[in-house]
Amino acid sequence: MAGNSFGQFFKLTSFGESHGKAVGGVIEGVKPGIDIDLDFIQAELNRRRPGQSAITTPRDEKDKVEILSGILDGKATGTPIGFVIWNADQRSKDYGNIKDVYRPSHADYTYQQKYGIRDHRGGGRSSARETIARVVAGAIAKLVLKSYDVEISAYTSQVGTLKLEKPYTELDLSKTEDNIVRCPDAEVAEQMIEYIDKVRQDKDSVGGVISCVIKNSPVGLGEPVFDKFHAEMGKVMLGINAVKGFDYGMGFKAAEMKGSQHNDEFIMDGDEVRTKTNRSGGVQGGITNGEDIYMNVAFKPIATILKEQNTVNKQGEEIVSTVKGRHDPCVLPRAVPIVEAMAAMVMVDMIYLNKMYQ
User: Fold this and answer.
1) Taking each helix axis from N to C terminus, what angle separates 38-48 and 332-354, rounded to the nearest 10 degrees?
2) S-S: 127 plus which of 18, 47, 90, 244, CB 3.0-4.6 Å?
3) CA 288 → CA 66, 302, 308, 328, distances in Å?
4) Exposed (0-12), middle (13-18) or buried (19+): which is 223, by Cβ within 10 Å?
5) 229 Cβ neighbours under 8 A, 6+ residues apart
6) How far is residue 102's CA from residue 284's CA, in Å, rounded to a whole number?
7) What is the tens place of the pLDDT at every residue in 65-102?
8) Whose CA is closest to 193, among 167, 215, 218, 162?
9) Which value, to the nearest 10 degrees, does the dihedral of the CA atoms of residues 293, 294, 300, 305 take?
10) How far is CA 316 from the centre of its chain?
11) d(C-alpha 129, C-alpha 136), whole Å
12) 347 neighbors 141 (Cβ within 8 angstroms)
């Protein structure tokens, strides 16, 4: 079935459902001899796992990764890396009352229409629990990127109407993990946490924005027409659950500017060509220019809220439904490592693709 794999040269195929026995995947394209730090992979999973704070779902999953193949004595063997994370704290009975109900703004109706069958337990394949596989692959991609000195940092920059007004260049991104909302500004972070908790108590949800910065990108990544760097990055970010928008560089703000205001003038920095400004976000003509790549990923409020809502059931009857279960009031804190993971996977795939020209 299409739609379960990413990448041309660095490839992930994932499998599993939210309330199935496990979620896992197969990673291809990791070159033999690369050091694979299992503790680092687990640390990345811990950043994504549920139950990590008062503003995330209380579902208690340890998300311990089990490597099945492709790694020997801490190094990649060059063969497919198979892995699995066993589900341990499912409460499928919480979803019994919505077996035949189409939850507002969920994939219930579209899955039913497309496949003629759907897994109602936590959303099945459409659940964000599938992103565990992406975080494992992204962690391995980050290990590959070490040899290229590429650094990827994502952080929560907006929750609801609460925004970080400072550009990333004025932030200390090393402080992102200092608080449970993963915002590098302590004062704004506290406001975000209080707001998310208020929304949670009101049995509602809230969206926001995750920003991501890639430093030390090689020049020349991306293809000129259909595989532009920013297009590939946008595709994977829009493939993350609950994502509604993506921009890079000045993004939609560029629509308000004149060319003289937006253009990045070239300068010489020693014997290196650089740009005086970086409004292009490190990408020109769909190809990276070596400057910082920066982007924003907009997340909607998650659709599962514990309030009564009007909907329709499988029999075509209009009803009032209440959803049970354990859910995040805001996905952003746990989505930060997912954004980083997808960015890392695109970077490795594009680096490998670019080697065809060298």
Assistant:
1) 140
2) 18
3) 35, 33, 48, 35
4) middle
5) 221, 222, 283, 286, 287, 288, 346, 350
6) 43
7) 999 999 999 999 999 999 999 998 665 565 666 788 89
8) 162
9) 90
10) 35
11) 12
12) yes
Q: How many CB atoms lie within 10 A of CB 275?
A: 18
pLDDT tens for 155-190 read 999 999 999 999 999 999 999 999 999 999 999 999
Q: Do the bridges between strand 22-28 and strand 81-86 make them parallel or antiparallel, or are there none, so unpaired?
A: antiparallel
Chain position carrying tokens 């809220």: 305
Is residue 131 classed as helix, strand or coil in its secondary structure?
helix
Distance CA 286, CA 221 (A): 8
Residue with tokens 């003289």: 260
Backbone angles phi, psi at 275, to 5 degrees: -115, 145
- In sequence order, what are the residues at sequence separation of 6 or more whose Cβ sits closer than 8 angstroms to the Cβ of residue 186? 175, 178, 179
Is 32 exposed, middle or buried, given 0-12, 13-18 or 19+ CB atoms closer than 10 A? exposed
d(CA 86, CA 132): 11
Residue 29 identity = G
More confident residue, 321 or 192: 192
The conformation of residue 344, written as its DSSP 8-state character, comes to H
φ, ψ (nearest 5 deg) of residue 317: -95, 135
Q: Are 53 and 333 in contact (CB under 8 A)?
A: yes
DSSP 218: P
Query: Is residue 210 classed exposed, middle or buried when 0-12, 13-18 and 19+ CB atoms within 10 A define those classes?
Result: buried
| 184 SS3 class | coil
CA torsion angle 127 128 132 138 (round to 10): 130
Q: What is the DSSP string of 3-65?
A: TSEE-SSSEEEEEE-TTSSEEEEEEE-PPTT-B--HHHHHHHHHHH-TTSSTTS--------E
pLDDT of residue 94: 57
Q: Could you give the C-alpha distances from 74 to 39, 44, 136, 227, 352, in angstroms and in order?
A: 11, 17, 15, 34, 22
The one-letter amino acid at 334: R
Tokens representing residue 100 in the block: 């035949």
